[in-house]
Design a protein that fits this description.
Layout lengths: L12 E3 L39 E4 L1 H5 L7 H4 L3 H7 L4 E4 L15 H13 L3 H4 L6 H9 L2 E4 L3 E4 L1 H20 L6 H10 L2 E3 L2 H7 L3
Parallel strand pairs: 2-3
Antiparallel strand pairs: 1-6, 4-5
Length: 210
């Protein structure tokens, strides 16, 4: 579990200070080959253009009907291919809003329900979502209680975020290792983007159970 300070006796992960250029872990700078995406019959997948972030277009209809076909090309990729691509995917959620509607997408029940279904069907999704543009943070905001701050942006309920990170990190690590793969560096970076530092003893404890 996350500790409230550096002196906690047996933390699993600890709250990290607000990210700074020096403190925030960064995704690997190595070039990432994006998947060869093909449009679905509904035309909801935007084919990737070389050099651009691969984007999945999720239509208003798909959101309303909880349709996950826009993610099908990614879901069909082998696990090693997903992990090799790293955090590079963007979701473009097309929800119709009035010009005077002040709500963020994560405050719209129908959009949150689609995101919850997508996350339940594809638990690896947070690991492949692009991070620097806020894709990962927005997705997690769809799943967890949060508030908005003008100065700090999205703020999560600490206990909820702590439990979610712990559960997802353990699941993804077991999922990867079960196929002879490793993604712990990516998991550490994912947690850091959300404001948590994974305690190194977590992996030692997990490995000790093997």
């Amino acid at each position: 579990m996350a500790s409230s300070g550096p002196t906690s006796p047996q933390p699993i992960h600890q709250p990290a200070p607000q990210p700074s250029p020096q403190a925030s872990p960064k995704a690997s700078p190595e070039p990432i080959q994006t998947p060869n995406l093909e449009p679905t019959p509904t035309g909801e997948i935007l084919a990737n253009v070389a050099g651009e972030i691969p984007t999945v277009e999720v239509s208003f209809k798909a959101l309303q009907q909880l349709e996950l076909s826009p993610l099908a090309p990614w879901a069909q990729l082998p696990t090693d291919a997903l992990l090799q691509r790293g955090p590079c995917l963007a979701l473009n959620l097309h929800w119709h809003r009035q010009a005077d509607d002040p709500r963020e997408l994560s405050e719209i029940a129908e959009v949150r329900l689609w995101s919850l279904r997508a996350d339940a069907a594809y638990p690896w999704l947070p690991l492949v979502l692009e991070r620097s543009s806020g894709q990962l943070t927005r997705h997690v905001a769809m799943l967890l209680p949060h508030s908005f701050s003008r100065t700090e942006g999205i703020r999560f309920a600490p206990e909820s975020l702590e439990l979610w990170i712990t559960h997802r990190v353990l699941w993804l690590d077991g999922w990867a290792r079960g196929q002879g793969l490793h993604c712990r560096q990516g998991l550490t970076q994912m947690a850091a983007v959300l404001g948590f530092e994974l305690d190194p003893t977590l992996w030692a404890a997990v490995d000790g159970l093997s």
